[in-house]
Design goal:
The chain is α/β, with parallel strands linked by helices. It is built from eight helices and 14 strands. It has two domains: 31 residues, no CATH class; 176 residues, Lysozyme-like.
Length: 272
């Protein structure tokens, strides 16, 4: 019995010696082999971009992109940011703007219509002329009518084209030059406290469903930022000078689709 115990002890010690020797050899091989000692190779870092809305940084491949601007989500792309710009709009900065008076936030939206040359949107896409006009880049030689208006300095916060494209020219925090001499419920200088929205049209042609849909979304975005907004037409605040948006603008449809309280439409729902 004692012999068997010695035999088993000898086998066990030989096994431990053999295993230890193999471990030492493996360690020496690793130290001699530069490829085995290398740390895993790091991949090149991906370009990071900043969300225009919330300023968070994220990999470019994960960002939503619109007009060379980046957003961390589709929701932020569609929102009105803290600087007064809507991510899903085309940004075309107009020089025709001012800062609002101190402590004045917009509480009025003025709806207009515009087309350049007047009425030509019926036969071709002429919205670029409006964009050029608001950016003081209108070519007076392109049409005889442009010679009459080329020197005017005007703008609006937004333009909704016939196809439903949304273009923004001025931050909602600033005042655009859209209302002119005007008065809303006894308050003059409406540019100081209003947001201007131009619908591409001429007053003689019904507006497109696509325009109403974009106007609805825009109105809801503005109302979420500026509570208790009131809504009026240009003709309501400048009745001696203006007729827009005209009798073809459907105020009742606008109210039904947006859910705006009739109290926030002080001039009523009747076409005018």
């Amino acid at each position: 019995m004692f012999k068997w115990l010695l035999l088993f002890a000898g086998v066990y010690l030989f096994y431990r010696w053999l295993k230890g020797k193999k471990h030492i050899q493996t360690g020496e091989e690793k130290s001699d082999n530069p490829n085995l000692n290398k740390a895993p190779r790091a991949t090149d870092s991906e370009e990071m971009v900043q969300c225009q809305h919330c300023k968070v940084h994220l990999p470019k491949s994960e960002a939503k992109t619109f007009e060379e601007r980046f957003y961390c989500s589709q929701d932020h792309l569609n929102q009105l940011d803290q600087e007064g710009w809507i991510g899903s709009a085309k940004w075309r900065l107009s020089p025709n703007q001012d800062v609002r008076p101190e402590n004045i936030a917009p509480d009025l939206v003025v709806i207009h219509h515009i087309s350049l040359p007047p009425g030509e949107f019926r036969t071709k896409n002429s919205s670029q002329y409006v964009i050029d006009f608001f950016q003081n880049q209108l070519d007076a030689k392109a049409h005889s009518y442009f010679e009459e208006i080329a020197g005017q300095k005007v703008s609006s916060h937004f333009l909704i084209t016939r196809s439903g494209e949304l273009v923004q020219f001025v931050s909602t925090q600033n005042k655009a030059w859209h209302a002119g001499v005007s008065s809303f419920m006894g308050r003059e200088k409406c540019n100081d406290f209003s947001i201007g929205i131009e619908l591409e049209g001429d007053g003689d042609t019904p507006f497109e469903d696509a325009q109403y849909q974009v106007l609805k979304t825009l109105t809801q975005l503005l109302a979420s930022r500026y509570p208790n907004l009131q809504f009026a037409g240009h003709s309501d605040i400048a009745p001696d000078r203006k007729t827009d948006p005209g009798t073809h603008f459907d105020w009742k449809k606008f109210q039904n689709e947006t859910g705006i309280s009739p109290e926030n439409l002080p001039y009523g729902l009747t076409p005018r």
